[in-house]
Amino acid sequence: MKLIGNICFAVFVIWAASFFFNSEAKDLPSNEALISQFEKQNILNGNEWKKGSIVEGVQVYSARTAGNSIKSSWLLGVKQVGVISVSSKTDPALSKKDALSTCHKLVQGVMARDVRDDYDIVARVFKYALDSEPVDNTKRDAEIIDGYKFEVQMGPIASNLYSYACTMKPK
């Protein structure tokens, strides 16, 4: 009986682990395709992206946006897409809400869709990062979204400024 219990437990552990390790890693679309996806999702217009350097044969792009409480810098890089938002500490509740929205827009643009499940994952990662213990003054958390690693990092960058960074890359 003990042997059957151990076998059942081992099968359960393998089955549960397959959910975490079985999702396929995906390459990001080209930066030009990402620009089109961001435009189709009404996040950033194609003309808002500025060409940067060519790194490892890939054209890098950046864009800047300003909201009510945060200013954001977007990057389409080599094997990584990200946004860094900076806010003053005068209204932290609004800053967190705006940063969460910006992170969701990043996922929305990369995935070329606007679905509730993606927002729920972004909100969960954001909350877990907020609740985490800081390491080197930075709080962070990550999760896999359809083969991409989505990571949130946040922390103070000056006495009156706070930074929120969200990235997506192949897992």
Automatic annotation (TrEMBL):
It comes from the Bacteria. This is Uncharacterized protein.
